[in-house]
Amino acid sequence: MSIIELRGVSKSYSTAAGIKPVLRNASLTVEDGEFVSIVGAMGSGKTTLLSIAAGLLPADAGDVWAGGEPLREIRRDGAFVFQNYSLLPWFSALENVRLAVDAAFPTLSRDDQRRAATEALERVGLGNAVQRRPSQLSGGMRQRVAIARALATKPRVLFLDEPFGALDALTRETLQQELARLCSDGERTVTTLMITNSVEEAILLSDRIIPMLPGPPATLGVPIAVPLPRPRTVADLARQEEATRVRAHVVATLTAAMKDRAPVGSAFSRTGEAREDISRAGDRFGRTSLASAEES
Amino acid sequence: MVKRVVHVMLPACGIVLGLAGWYLASVAVPDLPSPARTWEESKLYILEPLTKRGETDQGIVLLAYYSLLRVARGFLLGIAIATPLGFLLGVSKTLTRMFDPIMQVLRPISPLAWLPLGLILFRSSEPAALFAIAVCSMWPTVINTMMGVRAIPQDYWNVAKVLRLSRTTTFLRIIVPATLPYMFTGYRLSLGIAWLVIVASEMLTGTPGVGGFLWQEYNSLVYAHILLAILTIGVVGLTLDRLMGLAEARLRAI
Known about the structure:
The complex is a heterodimer of chains A (296) and B (254). With 296 residues, chain A is of the alpha/beta class.
């Protein structure tokens, strides 16, 4: 039974300029314990998809299932990490986490809630910063607090909305490793659905990668398996042939989708942005992989 | 060093120029007491600020204290109504549409207009004064609180949603702290207005206080005391504003 299942989901937003389709006929499944990433360019509707999968947003058409049950409201067994941390600045790190613990386990005593929150912060390496406010923490530390807050509620499913997008490259790498460790250690593996615009990040963390083919309306491509041993490091990925193959496959899928529908002279349109993103991603992985992907 | 001297000197120069203007005006208008005469006739009130010689013949601090007490009560009444109203209007667009026209009409009404209505409603001068203060001073708090709620970033609403916080928790842990700086801006402006209203309401109701004293001394032709009362009102108003400003700055620092 899939923990997350979307079947033929579509979504449009009504704006002043009329109805704007965002998603069309998107289907995906995430199995228990799986880490699945949706990779796509900025503004391609990834957040919308994630919100629908989490029950934050209703779909216009299609079915959303959570562990075999139709999902009608926000998932009770889910937790979120947002790109911009979304911590409450008037609370200490501890209080930010405790607020989540309180909401998830209201029957716990205040002391137990504090203990659980402290433990969660210790697990992300913030044991000695529990009393600090978000403004006194670096970006990486803030995101650690946000991850601690999400995991402190002992979720079955973790939804990550570009969790490392606002971090510098070095911090990002450390946190990616930490997240991989946190998601898989303990008595059970947390099922995770992440959206990202970094192919590299997706390969580092995921069991499967689902390319998001830009629209509007966007659709989902065929999932690409990442059959690489864990734990993975960025250095490993640069050397492993299998990683190179997966990377090429993902980039090629996304690039092909861009080419199909790239309008001429729309440098400022959504698609324009997206194209730039993907080609930059291609650059980072080296021209060869992109070229070989196009040949295959 | 030079900068610091200038810092002190410039306001001092301003005060001296002000006094000079006052002096010139007093030469031109014989009924207007000069600064020196004002001091001469007022020093009893200032040097014995806490002496009570009669119902309205009291030390200036005592008079200011009565006025402040009245302002405090009217102001607290005002913000006790205005704060929840601001939250409601901030959360609900329907309520805003419903009450916006009334608010726009009531907002510019002078305290002098409210006071007789208060006297009709409460048949006594003290509650009428409080009514006038409350009803005039509440608007900045209503509007700022409303704006504060509307300005809460989507991120915080998302937190409330994904953590599935209850309505009460969302209100106490997110809406109130996020709105607090705006609320205090409202409180500061409201207190300023409440202090403006006090003089008018004390004049009309003849209750003891700085405003009542001012009106009584005008009727007794002791013009120096009018100036004393005016200056007192100014100094107290400034102090209140500064104190509220400090509280506000502390909240914004978070």
